[in-house]
Amino acid sequence: MNVDSVNYLRTSFFGPLVFMKGCDALVYGASDILNVALSDQGIEQEDQNNVRMGMLFGCVGIGSFLGPIFANNMTDMKNPNSLQLACVWAFGLLGVGYLGIGISDSFIGVCFFSAIRAAGSDIAWINSELLLQKFTEPGMLGRVVALDYAIAEFSEGATAVLAGVLQDRYGMSAQAVSLVMAALAAFFCVVWLTYRYHVCGRGAGYYLAREKEKACSSNEEEDKLLS
Predict the structure, then answer these.
(1) How many other C-beta atoms lie within 10 A of the C-beta of residue 204?
(2) What is the secondary structure of 184-223 as a DSSP string?
(3) Could you give the CA distance from residue 87 to residue 66 in angstroms, rounded to a whole number?
(4) Residue 213: what pLDDT?
């Protein structure tokens, strides 16, 4: 099944999009580890730790809920370019969120930027999924999505381990690791912006229209042969 998926994506113009969710997971995967460390900083009583951790994850939930809602007003399934652009902006939000967490000197600031980070990660996750659903043939959709999720889950686990190693073995603070994640998000933002404008030329919408033209031409040729 995976071999079929790889072969299909290798010959498709949108093949690299299967890695977009994985890039998203590489960035946000460290957040759970960092939230635990951030909730421990600057307090002495354990009950305060639990409250702060609950507040952090609550802000993550708020960002995850509101982010895709706002992005939905700026995207259209009939316009794949808007979906691609939403993903690019989402990586920007991820970077801003982690940067804010890294430089904030108050817990309220950390909560606010955690919501920004969560909004970015969910916007990228949902719109990258929509792009694959838009372009993939129905007969291959299940296999492509399975590969897409496998890459994302592996990436999430890998970056969670990396965040733990950076803190435990190299003595980096949660803020320092957040800045590393911000740099990684900025890198992926540039990568996918480059993919949109240069690798894809005119963007996904152009290629989708071209694929439709090819399909129409093939149907016309078949009709001529049948007639």
Answers:
(1) 24
(2) HHHHHHHHHHHIIIIISTT-HHHHHHHHHHHHHHHHHHHH
(3) 15
(4) 56
Of the pLDDT bands very low, low, confident and very high (cuts 50, 70, 90), residue 217 is: low
Arithmetic mean of pLDDT over the chain: 85
The Cα–Cα gap between 121 and 184 comes to: 13
Q: Which residue type does 7 have?
A: N
pLDDT at 222 exceeding the cut of 70: no
Residue 76 φ then ψ, to 5°: -150, 125
Render pLDDT for 174-210 as a digit per residue (tens, 0 to 9). Answer: 999 999 999 999 999 999 998 887 655 555 555 555 5
DSSP at 76: B
Helices (H), the chain: 2-10, 20-28, 31-40, 46-72, 80-103, 107-135, 138-168, 174-194, 204-226
Matching residue, tokens 């940067």: 99
Distance CA 24, CA 88 (A): 10
CA distance 178 to 199: 30
* Global pTM value: 0.84
Q: How confident is the model at residue 94 (pLDDT cuts 50, 70, 90)?
A: very high
Q: Identify which of 113, 79, 74 has the alpha carbon closest to the alpha carbon of residue 96.
A: 113
- Residue showing tokens 């000197």: 105
Contact residues for 153 (Cβ-Cβ < 8 A; gap 6+): 25
